[in-house]
Amino acid sequence: MSAEIKYFRVSFMVLSVGLFAAGITNCFGKDNNQELNKTVIRRLSPDEEETFVSLVNRRRAIREERVVLSRLLEEKSDELTKINNAVSRAFGIEWNQSYRFDKQKHALYTLSLATPASDTEQSVEESLHKRLTERQVELFIRSVKTRENIQVAIQGIGILQKQKQKQWDQFCDELLEKFGIQRNQDYHYDKDKRLIYRVSNTSWSK
């Protein structure tokens, strides 16, 4: 029984999570005597306030989930780097190369494309890379399985990040459509007066 391992390039992006666009400050309280340069953009009716606060809270929850996913991605990326380094040190594996593992022969083979005899023919050549002891075989199989699990986790996190980004965009679009809240601007909400202020002296980064 043989198993082949190949290099798979794992592409991902770590989200930079800082003060998100359209940051809404103090949605449920007063301004705590903060000296902010604020401009009133809208007064809400009681019904509008309920919708507004609900949207802000739901978007805040999405932001927190994105932060968690970003941290998980960083952790899994570190784990992938560590397992890659460990396998490389133990077995001389280069992750831009393809290999075949023969469990029965306790051997790793390097795979490479042979010079084709014609334009339509292409074959793979293999050469012995390393003979393994029984203990090394167990370690190799365990390490490759661990690496595969980490890659699956990274791919899953990437899918979740895309879903959360889509939800984030939907809430941002709804806040823009219903309340004129821009993505690249900070806001303050005074619950007592039901006023939305645009804040012009706070920093913003996406």
Description:
By secondary structure, this protein is an alpha+beta fold. The protein has one domain. The chain is built from 2 helices and 8 strands, in the order βββαβββαββ. The protein has helices at residues 46-91, 134-179, and strands at residues 2-5, 24-25, 38-43, 98-102, 107-113, 124-131, 186-190, 195-199. The strands form 2 sheets. A 4-stranded antiparallel beta sheet has the order 1-4-5-6, with no helix packed on it. The two termini are 51 Å apart. Mean pLDDT is 82; it is low at 1-33 and 202-206.
Q: Which blocks of ≥5 consecutive residues have pLDDT under 50?
A: 1-33, 202-206
Question: Considering DSSP H and I runs of 4 or more, what fraction of the residues is helical?
Answer: 40-55%
SSE series: EEEHEEEHEE
Q: What's the rounded overall pLDDT mean?
A: 82
Q: What class would the helix/strand composition place it in? A: alpha+beta
Tell me about the biggest sheet? Answer: 4 strands, antiparallel
Distance between the termini: 51 Å
The best one-word shape is elongated
> Total number of β-strand segments?
8
Report the sheet-strand fraction. 15-25%
